[in-house]
Write a structure and sequence with these properties.
alpha+beta, 69 residues
Amino acid sequence: MVILEFDGESKYFDYRPTPDVLLAERRRENALVVEGWTLVRARWSDFSSPGTIPARVLAAFERARRLAG
């Protein structure tokens, strides 16, 4: 149960006031964690380093596997 969440700047600044967006995101993330999900966050800069995102996702799978078992 791993989720990759992309944090682009437009979601924080272009649609609603930033505090509202951050509060809604925090509530959603907390609800997912309570349900047992493991979140991995990525930003555009992460794509400039090949292998960064796959390594973080694989590490998250390993953490999730340990927590489940």
